[in-house]
Amino acid sequence: MNNLIPRLCIPLLPLAFLALPAGCYYDNEEDLYGGAGGCDTTSVRYSGEVQNILQNQCYSCHAVSSNVAGSPFDTYATLKPYAEDGTLLSRINTPGPGQMPPTGLMNACDRQKIEAWVKAGALDN
Fold first, then answer.
1. Could you list the residue range(s) of the whole structural domain that residue 100 is in?
2. Mean pLDDT score, 2-25
3. What's the pLDDT band for 50 if we cut at 50, 70, 90?
4. Per the structure, how many domains does the chain have?
């Protein structure tokens, strides 16, 4: 009888492993929300990335020539106060009323680039 129990358990061993967790699972913000994976924010410059993003996403309303929004920032001098007081980051990162652009948040990588530029001092570079 004692020899019978091990022989019966051996075929059940693979099933026992299926009951164990497959591995450690944790939520990674970058994986869940499309973080920096593939978005280079190491050397973001105003004259490069930031100005191009704003030109494509914001200047139709926020340019001196259109003045639709009443707060133009199509030059570094007119943008800097919004970058320094937190308005720029608040508007591009907050969904809902007051979000910019009003048609929906810009993609995560563009927002991350602007945020990196602001956190680096919002330099005219």
1. 46-119
2. 53
3. very high
4. 1
Q: Is 91 inside any structural domain?
A: yes
Residue 73 lies in a domain: yes
Q: Which residues contact 65 (CB under 8 A, 6 or more apart)?
A: 74
Contact between 72 and 78 under an 8 Å Cβ cutoff? The reply is yes
Q: What is the 3-state secondary structure (H, E, C) of the chain?
A: CCCHHHHHHHHHHHHHHHHCCCCCCCCCHHHHHCCCCCCCCCCCCHHHHHHHHHHHHCCCCCCCCCCCCCCCCCCHHHHHHHHHCCHHHHHHHCCCCCCCCCCCCCCHHHHHHHHHHHHCCCCCC
Per-residue pLDDT tens digits for 93-107: 999 888 899 989 999
Task: Report how far residue 114's alpha carbon sits from residue 89's, in angstroms, rounded to the nearest whole number.
Answer: 8
Given the structure tokens 């707060």, which residue do they identify?
Answer: 71
Does 78 reside within a domain? yes
